[in-house]
């Protein structure tokens, strides 16, 4: 069931009504039923996968939590009789048992993800090598990736690791835990929530709050605007350019990069707006996933502002554990000895960064495009960090720091750089993408933009008109957001202004949205990850 | 709790929004006034003030192009209306009949059986032409449900703006001109054409693997028969005298058998073209697919006599009120005819039909 389908809207409206009619204590059960109902539209086999992940994670976390409690009570009971060493030995023994459950469950949860998502990728690589040696090829597995598996697996893993770390106790009620993992608005494209943020909100009842409902609805409508008016309208041009690399080179590669940046931003943030808006109507506050990323002045800043919950997830559950792992400590020691304190201490940091970006890349998709995408991001971040002293010198020498025009340059530079890396999502493979990068320098002809070819990309003048109108609104909203919530600001305006804004937006979606017959029903891009 | 004043404001805001959407919907929906006139047919019935008809025709282009209600009136004093639409399928016809009976009870219903050959929806455009013109009712909902193609959405028939929203970039002066009021394009459902395109070749019929009409078509035909019987209406099955699409003998036999089993009158006009006097060199505007005005008037004269005698339909030309109404209709009919002849003479073709699609 697509977020933008009529059925989903009907489902939502029915849910909202029932949610506020039934007693609060039953609301979480309704959400659980609704989440599984929603997910069942993607296929019962997918329901089976998520159920297995829920059950495995629930029991592993429960066991780890029990061991925590046992340890606490044992140490309390034997407070006076145990020596420091005995306490330490006992704790280590408990930790070891907990680790066993943690690893088994991680292996299981991530194993499902790995098998379903990466088996065919591995097979295709083996086949590529086999072809060189004229050996036989392995058949691909006929498996479809369950919708949102990357998101719910990460959410489950985060929960499990937090319980292991003793951040909180495990949820005892399996139904409630199942709701945390399967909460439908965020199931398919995030944000990736933490149990201590979301759990209690899901389980405590919520009374009808006009402001919540009104703000939530506004956010949903804004999300639909971005998805239907902008993302889905620009999509044909992105497809035309990136699926015909022999025809569209030079300046068109740049056009493709910018168009895809607009599409992905409008698509992903639109989807997240709908997600957060739905939760808000239900009285639940989800973490923000974006903070105007295209206004970033550096790649590192961009990644702090784009897909924030994914970034923090990788930081907390991959970067930190890898950085402080025994292996990395050994690497650190070795590199300091061999390369000196200053250079040596960077080695483990950069190594961890590379691992994180490799994982981020492959998490996005099982292909070399995504791996290279991740590593290119990593490269840019590391190079930027290494060039930091040069930048500092440059800023001081030319006195540009804080100047508006220089900030604009930084924003533009970051946008183009990120757009260039991001286009790896779209081209057939890595060599084609690099060939296209090269063509920007070798086949540059700006006149090609004005010979009518822009109207042959699957968009006519009317489409461009809508796009310009939509993008201007999107940029204006982002600019206004810098000084606070648009909805808050609007709510302080006279009723007629508010009405005009809401209805204008709503009618714009109805009239200018790219939906219905003649338009393909487009899944949100991040649903595929 | 929300304060009553706030509720009132919300209600007003909602009403204004709905009004805006209705206005936009009217603007964005195709008007079918200057081309693809077939799209305007269904809604014309609801604007007809005098819903007192002895005969109601239901079916596809083989009724709305081939019968002239004005001729039936002028020759026999029979009042009639054609509820036809392009490639009207049997479920469209059934539900149109069901709905028509909410407005009036004709003495005779005439159904053209060509649509028995279709057991599934053919094209969204034809669904739209058959359904968009109907006002919202339970019957319409049932018809939508029966008619939708796989990629169509039910809700887009309830709120057509969801289907036609993308027409904003194609709006023409016609859309604004006919925003609130439409002209009539037919004469009691008859879509007049005076141009001529003689029949030159008859396409060879394809052999079919199975000639039996499908169960779903019989199901609707049964329902139609039942509905007419329940309302004391005579159902007449006809096959219009158009040469193509081919009407197979096997199909004809099935209709004959059905009519006999259900005590219905079935006339395959293809067997009586000489008696009717149809000359396919002069009486068709598209080489035998449809009759032109000349052909339609000949057929109407022939058929009017049959139904008047068969079902004792009174000659109502003495009814003063009806005479006045039909005289006005006849005037418009003549005006249209003269306009078309003049246009034909000037241009060599009829503007409204020049952009016709070939796949009808």
Secondary structure layout:
The complex is a heterodimer of chains A (529) and B (360).
Chain A: H1 6-21, H2 27-40, H3 44-77, H4 84-132, H5 149-164, H6 174-182, H7 184-187, H8 195-203, H9 210-243, H10 251-281, H11 299-305, H12 308-323, H13 326-339, H14 341-344, H15 346-364, H16 368-386, H17 388-398, H18 404-422, H19 430-442, H20 461-481, H21 486-491, H22 495-512
Helix pairs in contact in A: 1-2, 2-6, 3-4, 3-5, 3-6, 4-5, 6-8, 9-10, 9-20, 9-22, 10-18, 10-19, 12-15, 13-15, 15-16
Chain B: H1 4-28, H2 41-47, E1 55-59, H3 61-64, H4 69-76, E2 80-84, H5 90-103, E3 108-112, H6 124-131, H7 138-147, H8 155-158, H9 161-164, H10 173-177, H11 215-230, E4 234-239, H12 249-261, E5 265-268, H13 273-276, H14 293-311, H15 320-347, H16 351-354
Parallel strand pairs in B: 1-2, 1-3, 3-4, 4-5
Helix pairs in contact in B: 4-14, 5-7, 5-11
Describe the structure.
The complex is a heterodimer of chains A (529) and B (360). With 529 residues, chain A is mainly alpha-helical. Chain A has 3 domains: 188 residues, no CATH class; 153 residues, no CATH class; 133 residues, no CATH class. Chain A contains 22 helices and no strands. In chain A, helix 1 packs antiparallel against helix 2, helix 4 packs antiparallel against helix 5 and helix 9 runs parallel beside helix 22. The longest helix of chain A has 49 residues. The two termini of chain A are 17 Å apart. The mean pLDDT of chain A is 91. Chain B is an alpha/beta fold and 360 residues long. Chain B has a domain of 244 residues: 3-Layer(aba) Sandwich (Rossmann fold). Chain B is 48% helix and 7% strand. Chain B contains 16 helices and 5 strands. Chain B has a 5-stranded parallel β-sheet, sandwiched between helices. In chain B, helix 5 runs antiparallel to helix 7. The C terminus of chain B is likely disordered.
